[in-house]
Structures are given as C-alpha cells and as structure tokens.
Amino acid sequence: MAFKIIASQCTQCGACEFECPSGAIKFKGESYVVEPQKCTECEGAFETQQCASVCPVPKTCIPA
Amino acid sequence: MSAPVISVESLTGRLSDQLLASADSGGCASSSCGSSTRPDDVDPAIWDKIKDHPCFSEEAHHYFARMHVAVAPACNVQCNYCNRKYDCANESRPGVVSEKLTPDQAVRKVIAVANEVPQLSVLGIAGPGDACYDWEKTKATFERVARQIPDVKLCVSTNGLALPDHVDELADMNVDHVTITINMVDPEVGAKIYPWIFHDHRRYVGIQAARILHERQMLGLEMLSARGILTKINSVMIPGVNDQHLIEVNKLVKQRGAFLHNVMPLISDPAHGTHYGLTGQRGPNAMEMKALQDRLEGGAKLMRHCRQCRADAVGLLGEDRGQEFTLDQIPSELTYDASKRETYRELVADERRDHLAARSEAIGMVKIASSGKSLLVAVATKGGGRVNEHFGHAKEFQVYEASPTGINFVGHRKVEQYCLGGWGENATLDGVIAALEGIDFVLCAKIGHCPKDQLADAGIRATDAYGHDYIETAIGAIYAAESGVPALTATA
C-alpha cells in the first residue's frame, strides 16, 4: 500500500517532502513523486497520512 | 545579464537628476544643520532600526528598496484569499511568484540586485508559502546572504503558526523585522477566513483551527516583543467578514507590543481561483479602506503605504523590477560590488536632511494656514519624495491628506498607465478618473491640456506647476492657496 501524487494538480510547494516520516517523497524531473516501496501510509507513525494532511490541493495526495 | 551595466558616474548623474532636482532646494537648510533626519515622533533607537526599511517607515519608502526571494513555497495554513496554483507575471499580489528559488539561487539573485539597484536595503522572505514553516530554506538563505552582504537588513513575513518555534533563531540571525499576518483575534471570525491549518502533524479545521492559529500568533508576537524585534502586523480587510473586527485586532496587537499595523484591502477576483474570488466576496474600495484606517488612528501605528507586493518583488515600493532579475538573466558567478549602494547612501543622507526640513516647514505652514478643512492630493512620483512623474506615465498615485493636523500620507491608488507610446487613451483616462475618486488635486511633473480638462470636468484639479518640488512643499503651497494665505514660494 502506498500513496501517490497527482502531478498535474501539484503546486510543487514541497511541504509533503519534509513532512513525510519515511523520506518517501522526492522531486524528480518535473514533479514530486512518492516512492511506493518506502511509503508506509504513515502507519504506526501518525494518525493521518502526512502528505495528504499538509497538501494545499484537495485530492492530490491519494491512495495509489 | 541583459540589463545594461550602469556606471556609478551615470548613476549619480541620474540620481542627481532624479533626487537633487536643483541646487537651490526648498526648505531652509541651516535649520536642519547638524540635526538627524529623525521625525519628531519616533524614538531614536527605533528610528535607527527602521530608517532604511521601506516597509517600516513611510519616509524611507521614498528612498529605499526591498526585495523578496521566493525560497519558501511550503505552507501550513490555507487562507480563503490565497491560491498558489497560478502565476502570472502581470499580477501583483502576495503569494504570486514567477520562479521558486533554492537558497543558493536566492543568494545569487540578491547579489545581482545589490549590484544593480543602489536603493536596495532589505531582503525579505515572504513565501510564496510561509517563511517560518519552510524554515530550513529561509534559514539557509539568510545565513548565506549575511555572509556575502552583511549590511542588508533581513526580514520575514509569516502567518505566525510556526513562528514561536523559530523566534530564538531569528534573533540569533539578527532578523530585526518580522511581519505577522493577523486577520482576527476571535476564532469565530477566523473560521470564516481559514478553512484549515496543519499543526503538530495533523490538519485542524473550523473554530479549533482558528483558535490554535490565534494562540500561536499571540505567543509569537509576545516572544518577538520580548526580544526587541520590531513586528509589523498585516491584516487583510474583508468587508462583512472582519472589517469591523480589525479595530479589536489593532487594540490587541498594540497591547502585545506590535510596532506597526498594516491594513490591506482584500484582493479578490474569480480569475485568481481563490475561495473568496470564486464565491464573489468583494474587496473594499479606496474610500472604505481610508475610513477604517481613520478609525484606527490613535491605536497601533498604521502603515498606509503597502503595495501588497509579490513574493518575488524587487525595487522601490510601487515599482517592481522583478522581471529584470529572473534566473536566466543572472550569471552563475557573481561578486558583490558595494560601490553603487554606498554612493547612493551618501547622496540620500543629504537629500533626506533637506527633505525633512522642507517637510517640517510645509507642515508648519499648513497648521498655521489651517482653514479647518482637509484636502486629498494625489501625487505622481518616481521616488525621492518629489513630484517628478508625468501624469501619463504614472502607474500609481500617492495620496496625501492636508488638514489642520498637518500633511499625512494616506495611501495610494493604482491606475492603468494613461500614456502609452505617446498616445493617451480616453478609455484609460476614464479608469484613472474613477481610481481618483474623492481626490481634490493631482500633482505631477507634466500634464497635457486634454487630460487636465477632463479631470477638471470630474472635479479634480490637476497641475504641473510644482514639478520636481518636494511633495509636502507642493501640498503646503496648494493648501495655503486654498485657505487664502500667501504661500511660501516653492524653490526646489
């Protein structure tokens, strides 16, 4: 299980990158990308997925 | 870099033209002999901090420029007036930028600007997100810039939510100017402005979100005041949401030691894609703004000269040279050359002394001539505190009020440039006349018969008789003439 970022809606503010407790989010090429093998959906770390909680655009960090 | 390289000689030549319009300037120079340029109502220690900061001193904004570097795009608060999804180079509002920068790119940009814009005195980080939330980038930028150009003042603008976490570091880095945007002191009101915040690893909504934000803002403000860091409070005036409530905000921030309160009009347009833009929430007009600001007089000191600039603005307030300094125009290797800034500072020191003397004299005259009435005067100026812009070239007019209390800056009116390519457009002139609602006089360096007559038909008297005089000297002369008192001859 992992989250993904809808690149076309992303404003590239980068907040998700430094909120991610697993270091799963990186800027690659033109957009931020979630590495599925690193993403834990914040299980055991936080009650809510950090990327989705901080993202300023609705429905942009969503379950893959 | 495609911008022409300017020699210091030509620069001082141009400055002299611009600033020192004549050797025989207004005001009795001897009366200011040996005195500082500090206005009477400002504490000397504070004056020292603000005298070169255009956003903290209305007087300084005629002479000094600021720049913002857009290194902090991440944000922890959603405001209903903000949407960072779009950028347009023709838009001027906070939160809009053309390109985001890494701290290293920002340092290069600051050096490029410092080498070319002699008026530069302040580097601010105002997002486009939140400077305290995107802290690592803000901090890295300040540390690197301070190493290269130690005399640039550092300044941040924040929503306040993450501010308490970084006050100590701000103090350590000698950031002595902070702006907090405070739109409410009542969570009920806040809930209508902020749909959510992200704090302590989770998203909060509604009243709870607004309450946390309010508490953090107050805590941050108190911590800054305790450390002697000057704090400006920005408030967005949202008609029907917080316009009356801002009186309460003003009171509370004053109690907690805020130095300045800057009430700005909501910028709202469906094209911006903001919540307010899409729901039809309107912004206030110029006269509504002024009415509220007048009600706030006597509370925390007001800033009325804010231009609501972009998070990547460069230049004097009211002009934005940001497009001259995009990354593609900045060489990869740059060394800081202090010569232009130093030359400019020397020139300005004399000019300011003279201007201040002329200003005191004009204000004194207005008080004596006082007929009990007040006049609103719109001035076309390029800076330097003089009436030195052609009517047709003005993109904004600075508005002053002459009244029994003296001559006070009360705001500005943005307009479409009337004269483009040598032609004046009638449709544009109608827009200019509409923007000048409530204005009695227009002062400029030059104006043609046609626009002058049309302004007169609208009840606005325009004159270029005071071209290149100090603004206050010109206004004093007009006020005296209106009151039927023989005016001092303007000689500047």
TrEMBL record, chain A:
PROSITE patterns assigned: 4FE4S_FER_1, 4FE4S_FER_2
**Keyword vocabulary terms for this entry:** Iron, Iron-sulfur, Metal-binding
Please give the name of this protein.
4Fe-4S binding protein
User: Which residue spans adopt a coiled-coil conformation according to this UniProt entry?
Assistant: none
> What species is given as this protein's source?
Mesorhizobium onobrychidis
Spans traversing the lipid bilayer: none
Taxonomic lineage per UniProt?
A: Bacteria, Pseudomonadati, Pseudomonadota, Alphaproteobacteria, Hyphomicrobiales
UniProt cross-references to SUPFAM superfamilies, sorted A to Z: 4Fe-4S ferredoxins (SSF54862)
Q: Give all residue intervals belonging to the 4Fe-4S ferredoxin-type domain.
A: 1-30
Q: Which Gene3D superfamilies match?
A: 3.30.70.20
Pfam families for this protein = Fer4_10 (PF13237)
TrEMBL record, chain B:
Give residue ranges for domain Radical SAM core.
Answer: 61-310
Q: In which pathway does it act?
A: Cofactor biosynthesis; Fe-Mo cofactor biosynthesis
Q: Which UniProt keywords apply?
A: 4Fe-4S, Iron, Iron-sulfur, Lyase, Metal-binding, Nitrogen fixation, S-adenosyl-L-methionine
Q: So which domain of life are we looking at? A: Bacteria
PROSITE patterns in the record: MOAA_NIFB_PQQE, RADICAL_SAM
Q: Does the keyword Zinc-finger apply?
A: no
Question: Could you say which cofactors this protein requires?
Answer: [4Fe-4S] cluster
- Keyword Iron (UniProt): yes
Q: Tell me the InterPro entries matching this sequence.
A: Aldolase_TIM, Di-Nase_FeMo-co_biosynth, DiNase_FeMo-co_biosyn_sf, MoaA_NifB_PqqE_Fe-S-bd_CS, Nase_CF_NifB, NifB_C, rSAM, rSAM_sf
Family affiliation: Belongs to the radical SAM superfamily. NifB family.
Purpose:
Involved in the biosynthesis of the iron-molybdenum cofactor (FeMo-co or M-cluster) found in the dinitrogenase enzyme of the nitrogenase complex in nitrogen-fixing microorganisms. NifB catalyzes the crucial step of radical SAM-dependent carbide insertion that occurs concomitant with the insertion of a 9th sulfur and the rearrangement/coupling of two [4Fe-4S] clusters into a [8Fe-9S-C] cluster, the precursor to the M-cluster.
Q: What is this protein called?
A: FeMo cofactor biosynthesis protein NifB
Q: Which organism encodes this protein? A: Mesorhizobium onobrychidis
Q: Which gene encodes it?
A: nifB
